[in-house]
Amino acid sequence: MKKGLFTVLVACMAMALLGIIIVQTFWIQTNLNSRDRQFSLSVNNALAAVSEQIKERELRDYIVATQKLMDSIGSPKESQLTEVFQYIDRTTEVNKTLLVSRGIIQDTYGIFPKLYDPSSSDSTPILDYRSIKATTVLEEDVDATIDRMSSSERMQRIERLSSMDKAKYESIFMDIASNKSIERRVSTFELELLLGQELLLRDIDASFEFRVFEGNRMSGLGTELFLQNVNRTTYRTPLFVDVDGASDYELRIIFPEKNAFLRSSVWRSIALSVLFTLILISVFTITLLQASKQKKISDIKSDFINNMTHEFKTPIATIQLALDALGTPVVAKQPNKVTQYLGLIRDESRRMNTQVENVLQISRLDRRELELVTLEVNPHTPIKTAIEHVRLLIDQSEGTIEISLDPMHITLPMSESHMTNVWVNLLENAIKYSDGNVKIKVVTKVTEDAFTVSIQDSGIGMSSNVRRRVFDRFYREESGNIHNVKGHGLGLSYVKRIVELHNGTIYVKSQPKIGSTFTVRFPLKHSL
Fold it and tell me: b/e per residue, 161-175, with b = 16+ CB within 10 A?
């Protein structure tokens, strides 16, 4: 895939993902706003219902108490009054309960219309009507009567009243009740009970705080925590509204955990939305990382093929030149030349075989097909063998190698051949990256719990980025697009895998232009 097309695809995927997140966020916010409006509507309806129930309950209590008291004292004679309306009042001056009877008395004087108009056939006497008001002091008051009446008795008495009777009582008792304090007309317990019932009927199961206000003055009715939440959204409704729609009292309610309640009502939708969004982000990220990784692997493999081609091209060309030289009569007649060219062919062939073997070994390590045959050996033995292998290279570069081996004799289960290759790879890297100034120091140390080997050079060193990737397969440090040192990037990867197969660890410390130190540590299973 071309780099430009890959960038366009990534940009399109990112825009689509961002669009989905924005749409999901907008949808969640819209859903919450809708729930908020529905919540407010339900709360206002609940408050209106509570206000109406309290008003009806107060009127009902007055009516049934009045009816009971009137039943106990009887009624005026119907023959004297054409119509009687009675109600209970209470005077605060003398603290007494009064039964007020209003009626119209009918008087007749025996005068008939025929007296004035002889031709008239109307025999109805002329009547005189006078208004009369009677007040009776009762021994018990309305409030006490209400308290003593059972719920069933109240219901029986109120059911006996007609709509006309209820309407007659309502306006009078509203005037009477308005002179009483709000604390005597309703209780905190009743308000809290009614509010809880009405809210639950509307599926609002959230804690609330409330207070009753008289104008801007806070009454004693309500919960104690109301004042601690006055900065939150407040819902209001008037209490004991008169016939003109006015009221001196207002019930205010607050929901301290309103936002949490609204979120909980849509948490399933929010959770699913967040889950699917996270899945999309994860898939997008993994896809992007995998695509980037595949691109790097493709570049590394191409680079590896180029490196291997270069590594094989030189020995093949050398062998070809040596064979051509051996085919000439002049060289064929010189035994020394023949031996020299044959040795050159043998060395280059061995070199190619080593390169191929390294690649095959790495492949076996990746497939976990490489089986190590280990024996109890002195770990210094493969180190000394490796030093002898690279001694000629060090001498050719006029370098020096300092060796400091711990004199303590120990044995470790090792594959001597593979460990020799490990030390050869590390020493060859120290030579290749020494920038012409080969100074190598090999130090071993035996402690109670580990055998440690350090190989230090004074070469070009590594940056922190190179140090993190130096053990990756095919990785080689570059300057621009040109490799400064020949190789195929498999040596240190092979070293790390072999060390790990021996239960060891390897790490590197390095600074640019100062040098690098590779340290290999093998644990000891027994105490020395």
Answer: beeeeeeebbebbbe
